[in-house]
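TL;DR need structure tokens for one chain.
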Amino acid sequence: MTTRTPRLIFGLLIAATSCSTPTDGGVRVLSAELAVPAPLVRTLRVELDRPSTLTVEYWTDGDPHLRVESPSTRSATVALTRLRPNRRYQYQVVGTTASGSFVSDTVPSDLAASLTTASGQRTVPLVLLHLYQPNGFIGYAIIDEHDDVVWYRRTSGFPYGVTRRANGNLVLLDGDRGLVEVSPSGVVAHELAQDLVKREMHHDVVASPSNTLFVIAFDDRVVNGATVRGDAIWEWSPETGATDRRWTAWDFFTLANTQLFSGSEWMHANALAIGPRQNVLLSVHHWNQVLSITPDWRTVEWRLGGMNATYPLAAADAFSGQHTPREIAPGRVLLFDNGLARGGFSRAIEYSLDGGSARTLWEWRSQPLNYAAAVGSARRLANGHTLIAFGMPAGLLGSTGPTEVYEVDAAGSPVWHLVTRTQTMYRAEPLSAVGAESVVP
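>> reply
TL;DR here they are.
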């Protein structure tokens, strides 16, 4: 392959290659151009002599090859994602002689300073961290099996939540900016601006079964002359731009039949999840309660923990200030119990809900104990392991720290441990891929 001189187009460095010959008598590559749309990402635009499927493999020394594929076309742009920092990569259009190389980007110093020590070997390929360091890195970062940062995106506000749509794009909740749908290659596809007056979005976003987005937003009402902050769930359709308030707590609860609150915030809802029956789980921090809402939004079908619970909990089993509840199987709920009313330690805990009663099936506490007064997450992996994040440093709101993440097996033995230097780590989320890349067997 002959390489032409790189040229600058729209501020991006493009490396162009001349046409290649097929290695098997098949399709010919007329041109291939490499671009840099975002840090730790490259895109390769390939023109073929006729419509064909396209496969590109890329690799760095000592690692397995990564592969990305495109449906049949004459012109395709594929994203080369999951790049380790400051490494030389080779790439090859499979079945042709078209190939090249590039050096990946370095990680910015403020992000590098947020991550410190890691030990063990986790089973989940990638972990997405929500990081908040005043005067430092604020945003989202994905780390790979080597604990290297392989994707990141800064936010202007607190990194409140992230979800993945069916098209592979990530939707990020930026507390200042709003909802931002971004492709793995870093291109913003859609955006819903934050609205501090009508619909202040906060704490979580989740992709719906119909591929729209559900997001928590404050819903203020005047009660006895005072403004009280309730919560609602809004639906956003990125393709049409339509927004709709699907559910509000004011239609189902009164101040009298919920737990007391301080200040103006009644609920402080902090997590959303879709259950196995397309029910919607809502975590209500101030109530120490998890709600399950029916798919038609008309009924609160159960309340786990807290006042007037459908599923009350014994004192030893009770959670408080909880985060990230998910119904991981029918009648089984996993969450991160901050233990705000208890103090002393936080934990991951799993409940069985059956016949109007709830019991603890499994729980895990770090050793030494870690008490996180706020934030944190617990995510069950496909192999039965659990990814658990304690997101508060020592001294903040009485927390013991450190900010750390564990992957533990079903028996509770840690297989991987990461400690960070960031002030707050809102969550740690398991991922199988950054974009459409796969590991070549």
